[in-house]
Design a protein that fits this description.
Length: 362
């Protein structure tokens, strides 16, 4: 048998030449498709980064999620056109190609969704922080719908009756719901957080003994970055059952502080103290003075209580103002000859008139 006759030798209905041509075409198509994917991804990424055009950025990320196995299946679909396949083999190849295409479509859809939500999330963090958690939940729901559709279409192509399957899933879903009450409780709690918005990403919360900024509201947990740097993770259901103090919703801060002066302070100087404190407070912007009064007689001091409002939720801004108020009051008291009180105790000894008073300063 010469070489030409050998090439014409048939195996499974196709000559060796046809088999070889098909394999060569598959390898060539796979290489070309890989090069096209790489070039297209690079061009789109460069264009999206240079111009900041969001649809191009989404397209670049979507193309990057094109898998190598899908390119191989596409190459097989091209190369197999040179073969004459038996009906069973042709049906099997069609099913494999269809399933591969559906899986890749699901990957493309979720990739486009992820990058779209990420870009949208970055924008919302600056303009509408309260919408970030809603977007996270929406992204999960859309991904769940996409993959549910993909799986159902794949099962339908495999010849499985999906109507009966859906009915069975409905019955099984009741059992699953009973077995996963805690998970579902956290899921519904996350929906409550999204819809009711007791707090949003970026808010500063006090939860029991814990303090921190909300970083992410997930489907099961909420992540909070504490003041000391570590990440705190709370179950959504437990979090909503806790007493939460949301400092992120604070529009102004009420400040109460006291000053104690000695009992030896003259009455005319006592009358001037509220005005001294008032002047010290009103010297600042974004401040509303409320009151300053001689509050009570203390154990070792005459107590003056002051209340004012800082018209900003920023804690550092409040501390800067309070520090300046304290320094100003200290300076004015020194000028007026008013002494601050400190803990003292006077002991009187009975029965000895010669014994002078003794003062103890603990």
């Amino acid at each position: 048998m010469n070489f030409l006759e050998w090439l014409g030798y048939k195996v499974f209905g196709n000559s060796l030449l046809a088999w070889g041509s098909g394999v060569a075409l598959i390898v060539g198509a796979w290489i070309v498709l890989g090069i096209v994917r790489r070039v297209l991804r690079k061009r789109l990424a460069d264009l999206g980064e240079r111009r900041g055009f969001k649809p191009v950025q989404i397209a670049a990320h979507t193309v990057a999620q094109t898998k190598g196995w899908f390119l191989l299946l596409a190459a097989v679909a091209i190369g197999s056109q040179t073969w004459v396949l038996a009906p069973p083999a042709h049906s099997l190849l069609t099913i494999v190609l269809t399933v591969g295409l559906l899986l890749q479509v699901g990957l493309w859809a979720t990739a486009a969704l992820d990058v779209s939500l990420r870009l949208r999330r970055e924008l919302q963090m600056q303009e509408h922080p309260e919408a970030v958690a809603a977007m996270d939940v929406l992204g999960f729901v859309i991904r769940l719908i996409v993959w549910t559709i993909v799986v159902l279409v794949i099962l339908d192509n495999l010849g499985i009756e999906i109507t009966a399957l859906i009915a069975g899933l409905g019955i099984g879903g009741v059992a699953v719901a009973l077995a996963t009450q805690n998970i579902l409780g956290d899921l519904f709690a996350s929906l409550s957080i999204v819809l009711d918005k007791p707090f949003v990403v970026g808010d500063f919360l006090s939860i029991g003994e814990f303090l921190g900024n909300v970083e992410k509201v997930g489907l099961k947990t909420t992540r909070v970055r504490s003041l000391s740097g570590e990440q705190l993770i709370f179950s959504n259901n437990d979090l909503l059952n806790s007493r939460i103090r949301n400092f992120g919703r604070m529009f102004q801060r009420r400040v109460v502080f006291t000053v104690g002066v000695t009992y030896q302070t003259p009455a005319e100087k006592l009358r001037s103290i509220p005005n001294i404190i008032r002047d010290a407070v009103e010297a600042h912007e974004k401040v509303r003075f409320d009151r300053a009064h001689f509050h009570r007689y203390g154990d070792f001091a005459l107590i003056f209580e002051t209340v004012y409002f800082v018209l900003s939720p920023d804690y550092n801004h409040y501390m800067d103002i309070q520090q300046n108020v304290n320094l100003t009051v200290f300076e004015r008291f020194a000028e007026e000859g008013i002494d601050f009180a400190y803990p003292t105790q006077t002991i009187h000894f009975a029965g000895d008139s010669r014994m002078p008073e003794a003062r103890m300063h603990p």
